[in-house]
Design a protein that fits this description.
TATA-Binding Protein, single chain
């Protein structure tokens, strides 16, 4: 099952997902433009894979959810809520990006 999520602009998926590049690869990982994580959806453990299809100014995320044969609409809604929380998709990051632009660590 594939769902699309449109974050608030601007949204830099690579910068937001890069913090997971050294995570536990059995639980979550970011590598080569893809973010993977195991999540619980209504008592089902599923693998989500997220990649960016858009740009910073016109962000669009493609989310693959597996296994998809057991999922329903409520699972899709919950998956969106979980990803919104993980990546802070409801926040306007414009001022944060502007403030952190010169900070080499951030």
């Amino acid at each position: 099952m594939i769902i699309k999520i449109i974050p608030k602009s601007p949204f830099n998926f690579e910068l937001s997902a890069k913090i997971f590049s050294n995570g536990d690869p059995q639980i979550q990982r970011y590598e080569k433009g893809f973010y993977w994580q195991l999540i619980w959806l209504n008592n089902k453990l599923v693998l989500i894979t997220v990649r960016s299809l858009g740009s910073v100014d016109k962000p669009e995320l493609s989310v693959s959810i597996k296994p998809d044969n057991e999922l329903n609409k409520k699972d899709n809604v919950l998956a969106r809520k979980i990803l919104t929380s993980i990546f802070n998709l409801d926040f306007d990051l414009k001022y944060f990006y502007e403030d952190m632009h010169e900070d080499s660590i951030m």
